[in-house]
Amino acid sequence: MLLINKVLEIREHVKNAKKEGKKVGLVPTMGFFHDGHLELMRQARKECDVVIVSIFVNPTQFGPGEDYEDYPRDLERDMQLAEEVGVDVIFNPSVEEMYPDGFSTYVEVKGITGKLCGRSRPGHFKGVATIVTKLFNSVQPDVAFFGQKDAQQVLVIKKMVKELNIDVEIRTVPIVREEDGIAMSSRNLYLNDEERKAARILYRSIQKAQQKVQEGERDVNSLKGAVIDMISSEPLAKIDYVELLTYPELEEKDVLEGKMLLALAVKIGKARLIDNAILEG
Ligand code: AMP
Hints:
The radius of gyration is 19 Å and the shape is globular. It has helices at about 5-20, 35-45, 75-85, 95-100, 115-120, 125-140, 150-165, 195-200, 200-215, 220-230, and strands at about 1-5, 25-30, 50-55, 90, 145, 170-175, 235-245, 260-270, 270-280. It is about 40% helix and about 20% strand. The protein has a six-stranded parallel β-sheet with strand order 1-4-3-2-5-6, sandwiched between helices. Strands 7-8-9 form a three-stranded antiparallel β-sheet.
């Protein structure tokens, strides 16, 4: 497995691979791998001849007072895990490589970024869209892999790729969960034992909503209410948002019809956790 830090080097590497007719896959990450990340890499390994994983904790997608400084980092451990699932190249640029002095060009997707995490974290998706564009331009992959764990992020990237005519196919991988249902996340590291137990309430409340849909409930407010009540019963959990919006448009609607995205963001201790599911009426 190769470790590359420079844009020009990764570009050269990919150019040579493509000359040989190879299909190139990119898995963009912020590192500190868990099985969710590894599942994206396994999917990429299945589909592509060359698998590149980028590791970059992107400062522009963190707001003031968020956890940019504290975000867990362990390149050595990540390299070992990536090698075990057959990754070919780790692209690990420095902040200066991606954002040289005087950097002033950003990509902004309007509309859907005003909802959910975009509303709670102003500027977050501008940072995401900008770094993903830079990664796509640096690596020029044929296919890129993203997790449904960040459902809104996938929608933002698909829209950006379509509207900016970026030549890459986007694949989505289902949420990978711990045995007790908690969605895997690098931020789960912030939880102590008690908080970790409390975090089960996110997926439990999603399951509650799924059960109500199965029993025939279609009223969006009742479904949201059931989720909110359940999370509120957990003293360590503080709701940021609970939303049930049309999918993929992310619009409000009173009755569950077709596909809708149930999305939650909940603070437990110093971790802000997100989870989601598509409900179908
Ligand atoms: P991150 O390093 O948190 O930015 O995540 C990198 C990629 O892994 C993103 O596309 C995430 O959606 C995806 N991802 C993170 N956690 C999970 C998970 N539990 N299941 C599936 N994909 C995930």
